[in-house]
Amino acid sequence: MNDEEVRMTLRLPRELRDWLRAHAQRERRSLNSELVHMLEVARAAVERDERSP
Asked: What is the per-residue pLDDT for 50?
C-alpha cells in the first residue's frame, strides 16, 4: 500500500458482496479493483451531471 491509498472497512449485505465478487471475477479483476473501478466510473458520471446545465 502506498501513501496515496487508505484502508477501510466496508459492511455490505452478503447478497451484494456475492454479486460484486461474481461481477469482479467476470471482469477479471480483484474485488478491490472492481470496487475502485465502479466508484471511479460513478464519480465521473456525477461530475458530468454537476457540470451540465
From this structure: 84
Tell me the CA distances in angstroms from 29 to 3, 23, 24, 37, one per residue in order.
Answer: 22, 9, 5, 9
CB neighbour class for 53 (10 Å; exposed up to 12, middle 13-18, buried from 19): exposed
Direct distance between the N- and C-terminal alpha carbons of the chain, in angstroms, rounded to an integer: 39
Q: Is 5 exposed, middle or buried (0-12, 13-18, 19+ CB in 10 A)?
A: exposed
Q: How far apart are CA 44 and CA 37, in angstroms?
A: 11
Backbone CA torsion sign across 46, 51, 52, 53: positive
- How many percent of the chain have pLDDT more than 70? 98
Enter the pTM of the model: 0.82
